[in-house]
Amino acid sequence: MRFIPTTLKDAVLIEAEPREDHRGWFERTFCEEEMAKAGLATRFVQHNSSYNHAVGTLRGMHYQRSPHAEVKVITCTRGRIHDVIIDLRPDSPTYMKWEGFDLRAGDHRQLYIPEGFAHGYLTLEDATAVSYLVSTAYTPGAEGGVRWDDPTFGIAWAGGVSVISEKDAAWPDYTPG
């Protein structure tokens, strides 16, 4: 596994190193020892997945408030997504900065998202599926979000939004502090 720093503090792209032969390939997508050595969380209590019918489906921007903040490891298992994270940790040198990543099925990449980040993605193909490792059980009372088009961040999405839940469309603009 290769761990590639992003422009946001503590967020990492993880690249698997597939072994190929005449049958196809095999790769390790999680290794407690290697992740711990890289300073990443290694305990995940939930494995979630989502399926999205249409291109232009946006899910986000979600986070969980402390003490229920989550580390997530995101993998696109079918189709393609533009995954966006925002650093919402006031003490971070990259506070209020965002970065986007294109992930696609078979690209052997995962996105490691630390606690204190908002996360969302836009599907770039029909019939797209996403897998999430999550470090903390979902707690409805700790749920928070930021509107996907909040002018505070000016996120440049990699396509148009055609499907979004009422809840995600109604998140408020971010208020620092």
Automatic annotation (TrEMBL):
Catalytic residues of the enzyme: H62 (proton acceptor), Y132 (proton donor)
InterPro entries given in the database record: RmlC-like, RmlC-like_jellyroll, RmlC_Cupin_sf
Site label Participates in a stacking interaction with the thymidine ring of dTDP-4-oxo-6-deoxyglucose, positions: Y138
Entry protein name: dTDP-4-dehydrorhamnose 3,5-epimerase
The keyword Lipid biosynthesis is assigned to this record: no
GO CC terms, sorted: cytosol
UniProt keyword Isomerase, yes or no: yes
Described purpose of this protein according to its UniProt entry: Catalyzes the epimerization of the C3' and C5'positions of dTDP-6-deoxy-D-xylo-4-hexulose, forming dTDP-6-deoxy-L-lyxo-4-hexulose.
Family under the similarity heading: Belongs to the dTDP-4-dehydrorhamnose 3,5-epimerase family.
SUPFAM superfamilies: RmlC-like cupins
Pathway: Carbohydrate biosynthesis; dTDP-L-rhamnose biosynthesis
Assembly and interaction partners: Homodimer.
Species: Cereibacter azotoformans
Keyword entries, A-Z: Isomerase
PANTHER family reported for this sequence: DTDP-6-DEOXY-D-GLUCOSE-3,5 EPIMERASE, THYMIDINE DIPHOSPHO-4-KETO-RHAMNOSE 3,5-EPIMERASE
Molecular functions (GO terms): dTDP-4-dehydrorhamnose 3,5-epimerase activity
Catalysed reactions, as listed in the record: dTDP-4-dehydro-6-deoxy-alpha-D-glucose = dTDP-4-dehydro-beta-L-rhamnose
EC numbers on record: 5.1.3.13
GO BP field: dTDP-rhamnose biosynthetic process; polysaccharide biosynthetic process
